[in-house]
Design goal:
By secondary structure, the protein is α+β, with helices and mostly antiparallel strands. The chain has a domain of 105 residues: Thiol Ester Dehydrase, Chain A, CATH 3.10.129.10. It is built from two helices and seven strands. It has a seven-stranded antiparallel sheet, with helices on one face. Strand 2 and strand 3 form a beta hairpin. The longest helix is centred in the middle third of the chain and has 20 residues. It is globular and about 40 Å long.
Amino acid sequence: MRPEPGLPDVFGPYFGKLEEQRYAGRSEDLFHGCFGCGLGPPDGLYVRCFKTVEGVASPIIIPRKYEGPQGAAQGGIVAAYLDEVLGGAVARLRGRPAVTGELTVRYLKPVPLETPLIGHGLVTQDHVRYVDAEGRLEELATGRLVTTARGRFFPIQTQALRV
């Protein structure tokens, strides 16, 4: 298992007083091996969500190895980050993890690589059996909106996916 990475200094002023929300920290956790949020995969994204008044926020710096068009992040990687952020918002509301049923991503601008970004996620409607969420990805320094997403998530019992 790789060690939990520290929060880059650039994010300190924004995230310093927020409480982190965790579901995949230990090797026995259901999502430990998740490419998006788990600590297990050596090349995983390790998306971290912090509780906010509206839902969650996530510090993101997309490494150059995930380049798509020259100088910009590959779209599937951007979608994976936002999938985790929206899922984090659902977990914040329900107090347990959720799996994605649908995800729609709108790419507004090229998503810059190696640039501090903030992902935001919030629940828009709780339908009991499933939950709808929306989110966005913006540059930390400028607040420039680069991507939005919406999705439908199904909260699970943590033992529900054990195989």
